[in-house]
Amino acid sequence: MAMFLLRSTYTADGLNGLIRDGGTKRVDVVRKMVEEAGGRVESMYFAFADDDTYVLCEMPDHRTVAALAIAIGAAGGLQVQVTPLLTPADVDEATRTRTDYTAPGV
Q1: What's the pLDDT tens digit per position in 68-101?
Q2: Nearest CA among 53, 62, 46, 61 for reference residue 80
């Protein structure tokens, strides 16, 4: 499975829901959603920064995490950004993969 970072920012409606439900319930909702999609939440944190939540999770593939991001955005409580993550072994493999590329102007 692939690792992803989901960064989210609450809308006004989302913040009102957070006030009503609390943080623990939101973590439970996220964990259930990810697990039902075949994934696993490694961690979830709330922050006072450019983003309000950070979720580190394993998902079966890019399409599955895209489906979750679309559903989350359509619900209206959050704006979500998905970042695919690479392990050090993934980077090692990528550096050994040969490509043929010429820079512009060369």
Answers
A1: 999 999 999 999 999 999 999 999 999 999 999 8
A2: 53
Cβ(37)–Cβ(64) under 8 Å? yes
- 62 within 8 A of 3, measured Cβ to Cβ: no
Provide the 8-state DSSP code for 10: E
Cβ atoms within 10 A of the Cβ of 39, count?
22
Pairing type for strands 53-59 and 2-10 reads: antiparallel
In this prediction, residues 27-49 reach a mean pLDDT of 97
Amino acid at 61: D
Average pLDDT over residues 15-23: 95
* Class of 2-96 in CATH: alpha beta
The residues with which 14 forms a beta bridge, in sequence order, are none
Sequence-ordered strand ranges (E) for 21-90? 40-46, 53-59, 78-85
Q: What's the predicted TM-score (pTM) here? A: 0.88
User: Closest Cα partner for 65 from 51, 53, 82, 52?
Assistant: 82
